Amino acid sequence: MYVGLDLGTSGLRALLVGEDGAPVASLSESYQTAHPHPGWSEQDPAVWVAAVDAVLTRMAAERPEDMAAVRGIGVSGHMHGAVCLDSAGAVVRPCILWNDTRSFAEAAALDATDDVRALSGNIVFPGFTAPKLAWMAAHEPDAFARVAHVVLPAGYMNFHLTGELFADMSDSAGTSWLDVGARDWSPRLLEAGGMARAQMPRLVEGSDVGGQLRQDLAARWGMTGTVAVVGGAGDNAASACGVGAMREGQGFVSLGTSGVLLTGRDGYAPLPESAVHTFCHAVPGQWYQMGVILAATDSLNWLSRVTGTAPADLAREVGDEISGPGRLRFLPYLSGERTPHNDARIRGGFLNIEQATDRRAMTQAVMEGVAFAIGDCALALRQTGVELQSLLAIGGGAASRYWVKTIATVLGVPLDLPEAGDFGAALGAARLAMVGCGAGTVEDVMVAPAVRETVAPDAALADAYAEAFQAYRATYPAVKDLP
């Protein structure tokens, strides 16, 4: 048996899988995020420790024989968070999370520093780890002076499980301290961020064993024998492992709170100015790239709150089949935007509202706006030289066939809908544990799920959506400087 832990922003999930890679049981525990000031987002790592103990203690009580057979654990975690430890391994301050924007000035300064984009392969976003430590140095100097080590959330969970400080490449690539091409900490990037290599965890590949589960925890959770803990992965890389998006052109469109268009890469081909994220994959010799939009289903959730209509009911009103783009246009920049604009100040809106505009038209416009934003991500990815070949549609928004059909037509790429099942970040983490423990190779274990339907682009409507997409793309330059 193998355990995949998905350390998310709102909760922790444990997935138990068998030797064949099939899920056996799943349990989760939720926790809260603190927002002590506008733009701040923090969590006490102690809540993660309590959550993992709660879920695995329950798992041991419910499935003692299966837990006794566990031989490996993999951890997936939300990326970019800064967990600062003192020389005794104690947490210095609450973790500053990925969606915390306080360090925007420090991010801009680092991004403008010589060699930073070239070595890290990415723009320095305010959510990345390095600007958070620069902010601490400027605003919390006493706390910063105590920092002996910095780990990411998944790395902290590894530390709790094993007592050792190690981190995988995919997670570390989002710090702005890693030379993403060389897959190692960069002396130049560390210097630019005011950090030292001695403060960094040991690097391992996500499918390599990083340490062994502490005996006291193994006994508490009913695990017998030696239990390996692998490097694990950042959440998007783990999700890619869960759906088999490992090689060039294989990827997925994720319609969650935010939106992600991700593809595997067989080589390193960064293009920072496009705001595409270029990160190490969770397995050796592979990378992945993704475009990220900040409000995908969150845009529909916003419309739901405004109209007092449940998101599922809004989706039902537009039906299943597309008939061409509407004249009403929606800009999904409710929280700013990442790819391709890297603009934290831009905000969303509707254009072309008229007396005849109704709720259905607004829902259609929201779905089209999100589809066009994902189209922007696709253009940015294609500029790096990748050809999008095989894409899965996953996430809550993929339940709307209308939305999936719209995105397929905008991208000009068929989208596969997987059969019902468990193939997210927790499964990817468990698969990494399987590979690390010798249960199979990456090619054997990281397979794509069965497909229940392929949604093809609507060729008859392709030109109409292409024209609407170009009109959408022309809108951002016209509104970006509005007060």
TrEMBL record:
Enzyme Commission number(s): 2.7.1.17
Tell me the enzyme class.
transferase
Carbohydrate kinase FGGY N-terminal domain: residues covered: 1-242
What is a GO molecular function of this protein?
ATP binding
The entry's substrate-binding residues are 79-80
Residues covered by the Carbohydrate kinase FGGY C-terminal domain: 252-436
- Which reactions are catalysed by this chain? D-xylulose + ATP = D-xylulose 5-phosphate + ADP + H(+)
Location of site Important for activity? 6
GO BP: D-xylose metabolic process; xylulose catabolic process
HAMAP family listed in its UniProt record: XylB
Q: What does this protein do?
A: Catalyzes the phosphorylation of D-xylulose to D-xylulose 5-phosphate.
What the record says about family reads: Belongs to the FGGY kinase family.
What protein name applies here?
A: Xylulose kinase
